[in-house]
Amino acid sequence: MNGGARVSAHARVTAAPGGALPVLRGEGALALRRTRGEPGRAQVTVVGAMSVPLTGDSLRLTAVVEPGAALSVTSAAATLALPGQGAREPATYDTELTVGEGGELRWLPEPVISVRGSALRMTTRVTLAATARLVLREQQVLGRAGEEPGSLTTRLVVAHGGRALLDQELACGPGAPGWDGGAVIGGHRAVGQLLVVDPALAEKPAEPLALGATAVLTPLVGPAALVTAVAPDALALRGLLDRGAAALGVV
Amino acid sequence: MTAAALLLLADGRFPAGAHAHSGGAEEAVRAGRITGPETLAAFCRGRLHTAGLTAAALAAAACAGAVPPGALDAAADARTPSPALRATARRLGRQLLRAARATWPAPELDAVARDHPGGLHQPVVLGLAARAAGLAPRDAALAAAYESVGGPTTATVRLLGLDPFDATAVTARLAGDLDRVADLATAAADDAAARGTDALPAASAPLLDIAAEAHAARPVRLFAS
Questions:
Q1: Could you tell me which chain B residue has the CA closest to the CA of A125?
Q2: Are B203 and A218 in contact (CB < 8 Å)?
Q3: pLDDT score of A5
Q4: Is B210 in CB contact (< 8 Å) with chain A?
Q5: How far is A166 from chain B (nearest CA, A)?
Q6: B7 interfacial to chain A (CB closer than 8 Å)
Q7: ipTM of the complex
Q8: Given an 8 Å threshold on Cβ–Cβ distance, is B31 in contact with A221?
């Protein structure tokens, strides 16, 4: 009977210049805490064992960085996608990020772990002003140790200065044909991206750089670079993404 | 006549340069991710439902003509994080445009050559060529989908010395998937006519992107990509 008890939550945060947070409102499963940050920069942590989408749940997270403001967002723990009893629709987790002129957002959550039998569709939409800066990291772990994953689809859509900068969707697990073959994941169980957008990259674009056999740093069409990585597990994935971050000078 | 035009466009012997590319199969063979018919089938199924679907939708949208080629090309850029694959797509686009203008002369193709001297992503040109040949958006989608598995399959015969019968059987077993991908791509292209390129699929394949850069950096290789 739990199929009817679906969670729907929408958390919002707005960062203003000087480290102020005029809006900081968690809801239900999504609790937001202000945490200690650097001067002039607001830092928010998505907390709690409650950040667990069950199949059928719907979560939304909206962050706005006003012009000239700086915000860092992390999460306290990995997000587990769990099966929901009786639910037929996948859980949805929609994140909307907006960064104004001269603003900066560091969006660095912990991984999402897709548990066997779960179904989650994550969509992250980022809208950047022409002079906005962004560091965004996504990590997906396909199943707990030794477990087959659930069904996990993630889409990352980034617009910069009014034009499409990056649009990537990845579907893994049951219902995603060929996901574990040699073209897509090839038997790996962790996959992630690190996106850096910075007007400085327009002057001096990043050079393509191999970060081992299963990760690469590439320049996008626009002032941006992307690290794409697959790895056997979350720890190895994080290592590859951190190497990319170091190469891009955003550690 | 249109059925014959589709056969011509999808034929590996159509002089558009595709034979020089393995669709990522060469690097996958080198890395041990393709070792025989089974792993080739898994590779092709994954490529079809990711890069193949994205390409098929771009081709269908270009053939439908509701979204300008330049906007589709920008959508293709956003869906192609690998600069090596962007360069390959543009090179193949230029070669296909040349072949298509000679085969199905059309003022629209001349205009594309004039307006985009650097070339457009190959699936966009494939859709425009299909349009010039009198084909429908679903035909263009099917041709793009077929190409996304035909390239790796043919290349693997040369790379691994795979039995050509086994390789062809891999493609044949994907026939149902090819139809489904063409249907999805055509529906997405319809959506894009109303909602813009955001409605187009963006299905990606991390290992294809990662391996493409490694492959492009190799001094010795059998296939260009």
A1: B198
A2: no
A3: 55
A4: yes
A5: 4
A6: no
A7: 0.96
A8: no
Q: Is pLDDT of A51 > 90?
A: no
Tokens of A91: 């859980």
The predicted-structure confidence for A216-233, as pLDDT tens digits, reads as follows 999 999 999 999 999 999
Q: How many domains does chain A have?
A: 1
Secondary structure E strands in chain A: 8-16, 20-25, 31-35, 42-47, 58-65, 70-75, 79-81, 91-99, 104-108, 112-114, 119-128, 133-142, 151-160, 163-172, 190-197, 209-210, 215-219, 224-231
Boundaries of domain holding A119: 2-247
Asked whether residue A6 carries a pLDDT value surpassing 80, the answer given is no
Give chain B positions within 8 Å (CB) of A171.
49, 203
Taking the Cβ of residue B28 and every Cβ of chain A, the question of whether any pair is shorter than 8 Å is answered with yes
CA distance A38 to chain B (A): 32
A19: DSSP letter: G
How do residues B129-154 score in pLDDT, each as one tens digit?
999 999 999 999 999 999 999 999 99
